[in-house]
Amino acid sequence: MSKNLITWAIIPARSGSKGLKNKNIKLFLNKPLLVHSINFAKKLNFIDKVFLSTDSSLYRTIGKKNGAEVPFLRSKKASNGSSMEEDVLEDIRLRLLRTKQKLPDYILWLRPTHPLRDIKIFKDAFLKFKKFKESVCVVSKTDPRIFLSKKNRLVAFNSNFKNKSMVRRQDCQPAFKIFHGEYFKFPKKYNKKFLGKNIRYVVQSNQCDIDIDTLDDLILYERLIKHNKKKYERFLHTV
Question: Does domain 7-141+177-235 have CATH number 3.90.550.10?
């Protein structure tokens, strides 16, 4: 990858959350939730621009005040409850082309509901992305003993359960949770599979495995972090 190629951190933050109203700007450790991702992105020296994609004038004001660029608000098509990442990316692409702005070459996608991140791990992931030129996800380990529902009955997803009622976690193939952050090439056209066929990954500490979706999540995680400040300090990005 050339040094001249442009990398943006994009933070997608629509205002229409149904479960927890205005979830993305709820205060978490005295900062609006989306600000944690903005602050984190600003600490990465290979990021050329921190871009906030939102449909809200209020979110826009908060984002700009904290160092993100918000040149336009997201379209209605890219802001409804069924909109996917590819819709948001296409909205950004078309708006940039329409205003004759240069498109980024690479993207770091940072969801605002994940406020804890490890800078070293994200730097390692970027190096892997540059080396292999394939999408890289930052992941956390999760329990691989997963069951699905089939005809209202539990069916083991992992083949290790065959002819067994129980198995040990360590006897199963490792499983991971994604969505903490993804590096990928900025799509030049609408593409549902913009991450590509081959997706690499880097594992982060499970201490960063926080995804805030409800008010209970917000309260519990905040209490947990405040009670263990030293343990979580290096993953926090309140400034």
Answer: yes
